[in-house]
Amino acid sequence: MVLPRWVWDYIRTIMEGGSYAELRGWFRDPVAPRHSVRPTVSEVSSPCPTKRDAYLRRVAKIPMEDTEILRLGRLIHEIFLAPFRESIPLSQLDSRFENILNDYGELGNKYKTQLYEIYTKAITLALNARDEGIPTSVEPSIPGAPIGLSDVVKPDILVGFIPMELVTSSPTEELISRKDIAVTAYALAIEAWIGHPVDIGIVLHISINGKLRFTWRVVKIDDTLRRAFLDMRDDVARIIEHGDDPGPASSCPKTCPFYGVCHG
Ligand code: SF4
């Protein structure tokens, strides 16, 4: 199975006694867009406290700097998702890995050991899922417009109808709250798409700082999270639609690709 056994068991446990969400993706009035601009999931759940990054990119048209940390994040995603994306013949597993690494030049070699470990773990999970007939799809295109998001939204993996996001760092309080918003956005989009309730999202944190670490988080998508997502979506849409510069935040992550623009 894609998720470790204990994650499935944990999902069952936290859903027992059922307190269910009332706000669903298929209820047009509460979830319909309030603005003509429809942001992406990453704009809504970005690390910028004031959402100035959305203003800089979409209004001021300042391109995002492609930092090493962003490239490493993309590389980890590619390595992890490859075995889920396609059934790689056993004889080609290593060459497929090398091909992905080669596309990233020196960066791939720098983290080769940890990346290979991620790759082998992903192969095991993907093979288990296939053996057990658990349906998965990688970066499926789900309509986002019904809930005021971009034309399509793409969770990293859909396990059945559970959206799963991959994050390439350890869980911190800040990261947890915005990734919870991201899986909530996907859950609402799936509900609007198929009319089936989605009360769970999964976030897998992969940290390669020091010893490789996988941290699985089960997110119970309740009405509080659903409302928080809708409020953030409206804030970001308003900033872009009206061209309002929210200004730099008082505390910004040094890794922000716009750090030089806001604090240069
Ligand atoms: S530097 Fe700060 S205010 Fe500017 S985009 Fe990044 S997080 Fe936002």
Mean pLDDT figure: 92
Binned, the helix content reads 40-55%
Q: What integer value in Å does the Rg equal?
A: 19 Å
SSE string, helix = H, strand = E? HHHHHHHHEEEEEHEEHH
User: What is the number of helices?
Assistant: 11
Largest sheet, strands/sense/barrel: 5 strands, mixed
Which regions contain 5 or more consecutive residues with pLDDT less than 50?
A: none
Total beta-strand segments: 7
First and last CA, distance = 48 Å
What percent strand?
A: 5-15%
Widest β-sheet, arrangement of strands:
1-4-5-6-7
Present as ligands are:
iron/sulfur cluster
Oligomer designation: single chain
Strand-pairing-aware structural class: alpha+beta
Shape estimate: globular
Helix and strand arrangement:
Blueprint lengths: L4 H11 L12 H4 L9 H4 L7 H8 L8 H18 L7 H10 L3 H5 L1 H20 L4 E3 L3 E2 L8 E2 L3 E3 L2 E6 L5 H22 L5 E8 L5 E8 L2 H20 L16 H5 L1
Parallel strand pairs: 5-6
Antiparallel strand pairs: 1-4, 2-3, 4-5, 6-7
This protein binds iron/sulfur cluster (SF4).
Would you give an account of this structure?
With 264 residues, the chain is α+β, with helices and mostly antiparallel strands. The chain has helices at residues 5-15, 28-31, 41-44, 52-59, 68-85, 93-102, 106-110, 112-131, 173-194, 223-242, 259-263; strands at 136-138, 142-143, 152-153, 157-159, 162-167, 200-207, 213-220. Strands 1-4-5-6-7 form a 5-stranded mixed sheet. The model has no long low-confidence stretch (mean pLDDT 92). It binds iron/sulfur cluster. Residues 48, 50, 52-53, 248-249, 252, 256, 258-259, 262 line the site of iron/sulfur cluster.
